[in-house]
Design brief:
Blueprint: H1 2-35, E1 40-43, E2 53-58, E3 61-65, H2 81-86, H3 89-110, H4 113-116, H5 133-152, H6 155-162, H7 194-218, E4 224-234, E5 238-239, E6 244-248, H8 269-272, E7 281-285, H9 288-297, E8 300-314, E9 321-327, E10 331-335, E11 343-348
Parallel strand pairs: 3-4
Antiparallel strand pairs: 1-2, 2-3, 4-8, 5-6, 6-7, 8-9, 8-10, 10-11
Helix pairs in contact: 3-5, 3-7
Length: 356
Amino acid sequence: MIHIKKLKVLFVIQFVMFYGIANAQTDTTDAIKKIGYNDTKTFKSTSQNHIPLVLQTHNGLLRFGKQNSYSLLPDGSHLSHKIVQAQGIDIKNAKLSESRQAFIQLLRMKYMAEVYKDLDKESFTVQASSMYKNEKNSLQAQNQLLKLANAVSSVRLINKYFCNPKINDCNYTPENFYRGTRHLLPWGGQGANEFRKLNSYTSYVSQHLEPLKNWSTSLFTNNTIDAYMVLTSRLGTYDFKNKGFWLSFHSSQSSWFSLRFYNLAPNTANERKLTSSNVSSILYKMPANNAEQFSEKTRVIYMVFKIKVLLKGIDPYREAIKSSFSLENSTIELYDTEDLKTKIGEISIDENLSVK
């Protein structure tokens, strides 16, 4: 009888443990679904050999400047690593980071079309103290292609052209592709001899160069991008004289697309105020009787500008994309969280705009 009771107790314990694990798995699955990709735009190649690029958006347009980390809370703290993993935030951020790098490399290829005409497809171009223009172009194109191929190649192609089976330096799968930081891999993989390196390069060029060129030229055929630029500013002390908070918009311009306000092509005299090298802050006006409560609950302000980016080609010295941008309207929208879900105010770029 005692033996039977013990069996019943064990059964109950096992059932509770199983139910708990099952519920935990269900909760995790639901949490992963919650993160979603509704705030992104996907750029797909016509070839299955290239990974799709996933970029953040705001109101359906690309989001430049400060990105959403999906883990920053309103009080300035972050979600725990356990929650970040359970909700798939780490994987999403890894995909977004890889996609941003790949996006820039694709645009570089697009505007390096003349340089690519001199690409040596049969052998590596070696750096020398004295080189002809076609040799310099070939070297530049080969260096850029290595970065681009690393950034956009599928798991299968990465394993084929950038991993060395002799030393098992890497073995990517769809499950681990976005786990951890991927460094720039050499042709043939780490420790490959010169024969494997060259064979990997020439094989990749013969089979995959043209599809990459076609993908790059299909991007933004009119050389413009409709987007939003997001800048951040810490909320400083209240200015009683000018009745508002000064928001810095120059010190916060960390942007993966390298947009700066000296790239702004102003359409009005009021917009020209923002381009001055002597101007670094704009005034967010607010009555003093509202300011105290506002400052107690707000740490960071997210300033959102609707813009149109004009792509102007490649800078031959820095190999960076040359661009300028214009403002699509005269309103700066303000938010207090990085997901940009709740607007807390606006600043009009008009004759009443105060700058310093």
